[in-house]
Amino acid sequence: MVQFQEHIITELLEDSNGGLVVTSAGLGLHKLISSLFLLHHHSHGCLLILSATPSQKASILRNYENVTQSQISDEVQNSPSEITSDLPANQRLSLYSSGGILFITSRILIVDLLTRRLPTTAVAGLVVLNAHLLSDTSTEAFIVRILRSTNRDLYVRAFSDRPHSMVSGFAKAERTLKCLFLRKLHLWPRFQVYVSQDLERDPPEVVDIRVPMSTYMIGIQKAVIEVMDACLKEMRKTNKVDVEDLTVENGLFKSFDEIVRRQLDPIWHTLGKRTKQLVSDLRTLRKLLDYVVRYDAVTYLKYLDSLRASESFRSVWIFAESSYKIFEYAKKRVYHFGRSDSGKLGQIKTASTKKRKLNDNKKDEDQSTSTENRVVLEEVLEEPPKWKVLLDVLVEIQEERDKRALSGEEKDHLGEGDDNGIVLVACKDEHSCMQLEDCITNGPQKVMREEWEKYLLSKVQLQALPKRNAKKAKEPKGFGVLDGVVATASGKKAEVSSISKQEHDALMAAASEISKRINKDTNAEDGDQKHVDDGGFGKGKGKGKKKKSSAGEKTNNDVAPTDKAMDDGFFDEVFLRKHDQGLDAESSRETKKLPPVVFYALESDKKILDILKPSTIIAYHPDIAFVREVEIYKAENPSRNIKVYFLFYEDSTEVQKFEASVRRENGAFESLIRQKSLMMIPVDQDGCCLGLDSSNEPQSVISQNLITRKAGGRREAEKEIQVIVDMREFMSSLPNVLHQKGMRIIPVTLEVGDYILSPLICVERKSIQDLFGSFASGRLYHQVEMMSRYYRIPVLLIEFSQDKSFSFQSASEIGDDVTPNSIISKLSLLVLHFPRLRIIWSRSLHATAEIFASLKANQDEPDEVKAIRVGVPSEEGVIENDVRAENYNTSAVELLRRLPGVTDSNYRVMMDGCKSLAELAILPMERLAELMGGQKAAKMLRDFLDAKYPTLL
C-alpha cells in the first residue's frame, strides 16, 4: 500500500460516523477498500458492501486475497461472501449473524430490512461504492435511513473515483452527503500534496512517441470536427441550451450526452425533430472521431457503410457540407476505383454492357479485351501508422534486452529477481487487442488483407439477403453525399449514378471471386484441418489465435501478388490490382525476435498490473485512469525499473481528449474544494434525530387545522399507514419516497397489482417506457383484467419522471385519427374495454406519494395475507376473493352485452334494473325503454326476444 492510501484510511477512521471519499480515477480505490476489510472484526457485526459492479467485486476480492496473504497473523480472515437472490431466507440470516463481510444488492437488502429478516443491530457498517450515482430517492439512501433510525453506532463509508460526476447538477456532493447522513467529505485529487509526493518520488521511465497520422486520417478528422461544429451551431440556434457547454472539446466525452439531455429533458416534447436528431448525431460524430484513431481502415469503412444504410434519411450530419469528405477519404484508405489507363471514369462502359460481360463465363474473352477498357479496383489497404511503430518498439525492447543480457545487467535492471520480461500492451477494447495480436503473429499486411476479404464477403452475404421494398431503391434520395460524391449540377446525375453502380459491381465481382475460391478450397480439402480454418474464415469469424494464424497463412498463399488466377482478373472487365507494398519489410521483421507480449483491454476494467508484474508497458490507447494505475504500481514497486511507452497520434483528437480529461478532472476537484468550504452541514446530519418511523416530513397544514377544530385540540393517536408493495417494485424509487412520507412498506410477492392501498384499491404502476413496452407485448391488458377481476377499484398509475416533460408527445404530433400506433388511442381502447379502470397521471415520485396518501384517506388498511392469496388458486382450484365472480354472473354479463340494442353506455343500468336475464325477458316495453335510454333500442331488443324460432317443414 502507498503511503497516501494510509492517510486516507486514517482520515476515515477519525470519524466513527464514516465519510464520503472522492479520489482521482486510478488511484487504487479497490486496494483501499480491501485494506479497510482487515480492520473489520466479526464480533462487531456484519459489514455490507453495496453498489459494487462485477468487475469492482472481482478486483476487491483479488486485492483482499493478496493483502491477507502478505499479512502474518494467527487469525485467518474469512473471505468476503456474496448474497444473491438464489440464497433462501434462512441462509441469508445465518450469513448476517456470522458477522462477516458481505457483498449484497440493494434490492435484497432493503427487502430483508423491511421484512425484519435482518436485525439492524447485526450490521456494523456499510461500504457504498459508486457514490456519484446516489440520490435522495435511491434505494441506498432508503437503506441508510432505516439503519440509521435504529442503529446509532453504524458507520457508512462511501467511495467514488468520478469527480466530474460529483459536480454534475446543483450541489451534488452536498445532496449525496445528506442522503447518506454523513458530515465529512474527503477529497484526494492527483495534485494533493501526499499523492503527488508519493507518485513523483520515483516515477517510471516514460517514452512519449508521437505517431504522425496519414493524410486521409487527418482529412477525416478535420471533416468530422467541421461537421460536429456545424451541428453544435445548429443546436445553439434553439436558444434552449447553455451555450457554454456546447463545445467540441466537451463533445469528445460521453458525459456530453448527459449534459445536453439534462438541459433538454424538461422541454424535450417542445423540440422539433431536427433538434432531437442533432442530439443523436453528436453521439455518432463522437464515435467517428474515436474510431478513426482506434480501428483500421477497413473496419472504419465498414462502420461508415452501416451508418449510411441506417441513418441516411434521418440524419442531419450526413447532409452537412463536409460530410462527403468523411466517406470519400475512408474509401480511399481502402481502395481506389478507376480506369486502368488514366484512373478516370469519364468514358466508362455502360452498366448493361458490363453486366453482360460479367455474367459471361468464357475466360478467353478476357485476353481479347484491351486493358485500357478495364475497370480497375486497386487495393490500397492503408495500415494504421501505430501498427508499424508498435512493431518497431517491440523489436527495440528485445534488442535492448539482448544487449543487457550479453553485458549481464538484466538482473539489475529488473530488480528483485523478477525476470518474466512481459511487455503489457494496453488497448481500449477487446477487438483492438485481438487485431494487434494477429498483427504481431501474422504481420500487418496479412491482417489487412484478412479484414479486406471479410469486408468483401460481407458484401456477398448482404447481396444474398432478400430485398424489401425493391421498387424504392431506384435512385439515391437527397444529396449525393450518400454515395460519397457531390452532384454539383443536375446534368451529372446520370454519370454519378453510373460511377456508383460500376464501383458497386466491381466490389461484388471481387467478393464473388473470393467466395468461389474459398468454397472451392473447402470442397477440395474436406475433413482436413485447413478445411476447418477456411470455413471459419469464410464466415467472417477467426477470433482465436490459431484460426487467425491459419487464415492469415492461407490468405498469403492464395492471394499472393504472383497468383496467376488473381493477376488475370476476376472477370472479363473488372480486375483487382493487388496491394503488394511492405512485404519485404514484413519478411525482414519475421526474422527478428520479439519479447513476450500480453494484450490488455481497458474496457474490461481488470486490474492486471499486480498479476502480470510487467517490466515494460505500452499504452497503445492512452487513458488517464490507466496512467494513474501505472504510477501506483511503480510506487508500490520502487526497486523495479519500469519503462512506459505512450503512443499518441500527433495533432489528433486522441491527444486533445487525454489532455482535456486531465483538465476536466482538475476543474471538478477545484469545484468540489470550493463547495466543501461553503457547505452547510446540519447538526443532525449524522442521523441522530431520526425517529423509529424515520419520517422527516413536517405535518401538513390541513392536518394541523383539523386538530384545532376538535375539543381540547388534542391529537388522536395516529394509526399506522400501510402499503403492500410487490417485491419487483423495489427496482424503482417509489417505495423509498412512500417511506419518507411516513408509510409502512410491506414487501410481498403479489400476483395481481404492484401496490395494494386498501382492500378495495389495487394499483398497477407504469413508467413511460414500461407503458409503451406493456402495450406492445399485450401484458398491460392481462394485468388490468386481473385487477378488475379481484378488486373493486383497479387503478393504472402512469408516472412521469420529474426532470422530463409531463406529456407523451408535443401538441403538434397529436392527431385527430385513431391509429393503432398512437399511445392515446391505445389508452382510450383500454378504458372502453375496462370501464371500472381508473387512470392516475403523476408528474413525479413525490406527487405519487401525495396521491397515495389522499387515496388511503378513510380507507381500511390492506390485509397482507389476503393480498398474497389474490389470484393464487387453492388446492381445490378455487380462487378466493374473486370480486367479479361474487358480484356478477360473468357468463350472463357477456351474453347481455351481445344482445341487440345493448351498448357500453346502457348495459350497467340494465344490470342494476333487473336481477337476471329471465326478468329482462318479461320486462314491459316502457320499462325497457327507460333502462336502455330510448324507444329505438328497446324495440330492437324486444323484437329480438319475441322473434319466433324458424322451423323446418
Describe the protein in words.
- The chain is globular.
- The longest helix is centred in the middle third of the chain and has 32 residues, at 493-524.
- Helix 2 (29-38) crosses helix 3, helix 5 packs parallel to helix 6 and helix 19 crosses helix 22.
- The model is unreliable at 72-76, 342-372, 413-417, 469-498, 529-575, 580-590 and 692-702 (pLDDT under 50).
- With 953 residues, the protein is α/β, with parallel strands linked by helices.
- Helices cover 48% and strands 11% of the residues.
- It has 40 helices and 21 strands.
- The chain has a seven-stranded parallel beta sheet, sandwiched between helices. A six-stranded mixed beta sheet has the order 17-16-18-19-20-21.
Strand composition percent? 5-15%
Supply the number of helical segments: 40
Overall pLDDT score: 75
Number of strands: 21
